[in-house]
Design brief:
Helix 1 packs antiparallel against helix 3, helix 3 crosses helix 5 and helix 6 runs antiparallel to helix 7. With 209 residues, the chain is an all-alpha fold. The longest helix is centred in the C-terminal third of the chain and has 26 residues. The chain is built from 9 helices and no strands.
C-alpha cells in the first residue's frame, strides 16, 4: 500500500486529510443537500485509513471506494452545472436515463457506512479487537449485497486487521490514543450524519433506476 505521509508534530491522521467530513457543509435548509466536490474529497481522504491498516488485503476495499468516487466524479465533470450537490447530480443523471453515477454513489455510501460502523463499534466496545469490529460492520452493510465471489476477498481483509493498540498508535505522531479517539469521535459524527442523509436519499423512489 501507499506510504503514509508523516504527521505534523503532535498531530494525528486527521490532520493529514485533504478534506474532513467535519468540513463538508450540509445545507439543512435545502433538503440536507451535500456539496459534491467537498464530499468526494472527504471520501477520497478517508481511503488513506486503509493504508494505516497495513495489509495488502485492504487494497480491494480501498480500490472499491475509489472506483465509486470516480463514477460520481466523472458525472460531475461531464455535467458540472447539474452536479453542485450529490442529490442534484443523481436526479439529473436519472432524468437522462443513465445511472452509472447513481449506482456508484449507492456503493460508495455502503462502503463509507461499513467503515463508519466498524470504527464506531470499536469505540463503543473497548474490549473488541478491530477484526471483530470490521466483521460486525461488514455483516450489516456490504455483505448482504456482495456476490459469493466478492465475499471471500472482503473477508480476508477483515482477518488482516492489526491489533487495535497498534492501529491507534499509528494514527498519532505521539501515539496518543486518547487524542485519536476524541478526534475520531468528532469525525465519525460528521461521517455518520452524511451517510445517514445519503442512505435515506438513495432509498427514495426518485433516486432509483
Amino acid at each position: 500500500m501507499a506510504t503514509l505521509v508523516s504527521f505534523p508534530p503532535g498531530g494525528t491522521w486527521f490532520d493529514t486529510l485533504k478534506k474532513s467530513f467535519i468540513d463538508v457543509p450540509v445545507d439543512v435548509a435545502n433538503g440536507n443537500a451535500i456539496p459534491t466536490t467537498d464530499f468526494l474529497q472527504a471520501a477520497e481522504s478517508l481511503t488513506t485509513l486503509f493504508d494505516l491498516l497495513g495489509s495488502l488485503a485492504f487494497t480491494p476495499v480501498k480500490n472499491d471506494i475509489l472506483g465509486n468516487i470516480k463514477k460520481v466524479h466523472d458525472r460531475q465533470l461531464a455535467f458540472p452545472s447539474d452536479s453542485s450537490t450529490l442529490q442534484s447530480l443523481i436526479l439529473n443523471e436519472l432524468k437522462a436515463k443513465k445511472h452509472t453515477a447513481t449506482e456508484g454513489l449507492l456503493w460508495l455510501v455502503r462502503g463509507l457506512d461499513f467503515t463508519a460502523q466498524a470504527l464506531r463499534h470499536n469505540q463503543s466496545h473497548p474490549p473488541d479487537e478491530l477484526s471483530t469490529s470490521f466483521r460486525t460492520a461488514y455483516t450489516s452493510t456490504l455483505k448482504p449485497h456482495h456476490s459469493f465471489l466478492v465475499k471471500p476477498i472482503f473477508s480476508a481483509a477483515m482477518s488482516a486487521t492489526p491489533y487495535k493498540k497498534d492501529f491507534y498508535a499509528k494514527m498519532s505522531a505521539s501515539e496518543d490514543e486518547g487524542k485519536v479517539k476524541v478526534e475520531m469521535g468528532k469525525w465519525l459524527d460528521a461521517l455518520e450524519n452524511q451517510v445517514g442523509i445519503l442512505k435515506e436519499f438513495v432509498g427514495r423512489k426518485e433516486a432509483k433506476w
